[in-house]
Amino acid sequence: MPPTLGETTLTIPDWQIVLAVAGAAALLAAVAWWMLQSRYLRLAWAAMAVSATSLGPRILASFDVTDFAEGTLLVDSTSPGWIAIPFMLFACAALVCDLLWRKSPSKPTPPPQDRDASPPDHGGNTNTTVTVGSGNTTVINQGSRTKTERTVTVIAMAVVACVAVLCVTFAPRSSHTTTVNGSNNTVATGPNASVTIGDHSPIIHGDVTINQTDQKLIDKLLRSVSDKDQQIGSLRAQLEDALRRLEEAGRRGDTSALEALAEVRATGDAEKLQAALIDLRDREEATLREQAADYLDLNREIAAVAFVRGDIAACEDALRKILALAPDDLDANNRLGHVYNIRGDLYAAESQYRRLLDLDPNTPETRATALGNLAIITRARGDLDGARKLHREALAINRQLGHRQGQADELSNLGNIARIRGDLDGAEKLHRKALAIDHQLGRLEGQARDLGNLGIIAQIRSDLDEAEKLHLESLAINRQLGRLEGQANSLGNLGIIAETRRDLEGAEKLYLEALAINRQLGHLKGQANDLGGLGNIARIRGDLDGAQKLHREALAIDRKLGYLEGQASDLGSLGNIARIRGDLDEAEEFYREALAIDRKLGYLERQATSLGNLGIIARIRGDLDGAERLYLESLAIDRQLRHLEGQANDLANLGVIAEQRGNLEEARRLWTQSRDLYVRIGAKPMVERVQSWLDGLPAADTKE
Prior knowledge:
Blueprint: E1 9-12, H1 14-33, H2 39-55, H3 84-103, E2 127-132, E3 136-141, H4 142-170, E4 176-181, E5 186-188, E6 195-196, H5 212-221, H6 232-251, H7 255-267, H8 270-309, H9 312-325, H10 330-343, H11 346-359, H12 364-380, H13 384-401, H14 404-420, H15 424-441, H16 444-460, H17 464-481, H18 484-500, H19 504-521, H20 524-540, H21 544-561, H22 564-580, H23 584-601, H24 604-620, H25 624-641, H26 644-660, H27 664-681, H28 684-696
Antiparallel strand pairs: 1-4, 2-3, 4-5, 5-6
Helix pairs in contact: 1-2, 1-4, 2-3, 3-4, 5-6, 6-7, 6-8, 7-8, 8-9, 9-10, 10-11, 10-12, 11-12, 12-13, 12-14, 13-14, 14-15, 14-16, 15-16, 16-17, 16-18, 17-18, 18-19, 18-20, 19-20, 20-21, 20-22, 21-22, 22-23, 22-24, 23-24, 24-25, 24-26, 25-26, 26-27, 27-28
């Protein structure tokens, strides 16, 4: 049963035609000269016969001679034409051997003779007597027949050579192309050439063949082309395809194509053929554009769903499919920048955002979007002034456009910068403005973000109950939306609150859940934050080796990202571990490196932490004055930020200095203030610790 065929193109090289015709000629000659062959000739004829047999199915032996110059041959694609090659080579070798053997024949060995027999006659013809049976002899005239057989060999070689020359001369220069059409179950390669191959389902092309009228039309169109032009074969094939295309379009119901084809056939006007093809192209182009638009929209939808689900790989794949067809698509370029940013590839993200400005520098909406995103990259690199400038420019454009969503985004970003610099009141004001706009727009994603930012401010102020409430509300919205990135942020912040309350098991659970999401997203920055939190849990539990490993892993990620804020936090944590181990020099080095980054960023909260840690180093070394100065500087910042936890830490450390100096009443006063602040933020372990210090002091003196 023949295989199912679809629309297929087969190519028959000229050399196969030459070999096939030569093999066929050899086969015909073999019949005439069979009785006169030597053993070499028989081998040659047999090999050429096999060649013809193997190529025969590929080329119809009875093709139309009048169309030979057109190369219109019927092809059976199932015959392996390469089989003919070794047989033809073997045939040629046999012919050459036969010719050489004829030129230098060896003298035959005479049969045994009686002593009284006459000597052989060396004059004239040499006769060889061969005994056959008992006493009967056959005499062969070797000389005359050798000449005949030599003539046969030369003629055979000449026939093969002539046929080859004719094929090379008259065969078309272009490849012989065969179109396999399923609609009428035929294979057609030339005028009136077809063969039934079975019952198959229809495909795009119909049973369109080029008839003699069309061939004459093509000949007319090609008269303007030089016969020596090497492209003439290709032009002929393309003109045939053009006529087929119009007829196929007509069979699909395109009446205009049929009318144009009829007019072209009637007039032979190439201009009309061109106009008909252009019209067909334009209509097909419109259809393709509609299909492409649907394809692009489908990939946008896939990217959006994948991004929300946290399937960043699928999101990137869909965006790249869009850009493969529409490399200047603004939305896809922008969203691909978000993907890079999530993965921590700041350089690639920046490149995508700047591409927006290159593609559309004059549209305000595009400029506002690009500037806002570039500001986020600038902030991640620690340039808060540059980031604030870009955010303000983007905010001004969005206000000019009346673009409320863009305004909310930029207000939120400016609020984050204000928070990092310690302006908590200004940050809260900006975040509440953004929240109001997002509420008005019914934009849940923005509301979740704004609530989370307000929760961080409450954390810094040590209002842990309010912070927890805000983060839980943000988490609920993110879960409703299926936003994994938002969920990870909320879980991480809730972990910090649990850690502050010394709920180590709860904090660890939250950090691990956030870390799993960030790893799923490929969100490196989030992973570093979560690893840092887990490192703090390990340190508090006394697992210093485990804590060090986690903090170093977080530091490596933040350095890879160029995320200075994260690096400062990681360095401070590594300093804590070195201090606990008694390596004060290494601890001081970590703390000072962290402080330098915090001052560069203008990150007041972190500066206060680093100053407090350096104060601990100075106190351990016995430099009480230096330690006191560092604690007081840290306390001033924490009071400016209204950071209750920081204030409680600073007051507790100042109380230690007072105690070491013997000023027990000052120590009692400072520790009492510290304990009360810990009570306010719900840090029960620290409350108990400071209370134990107070209990260790001697009773206060009372006046009589």
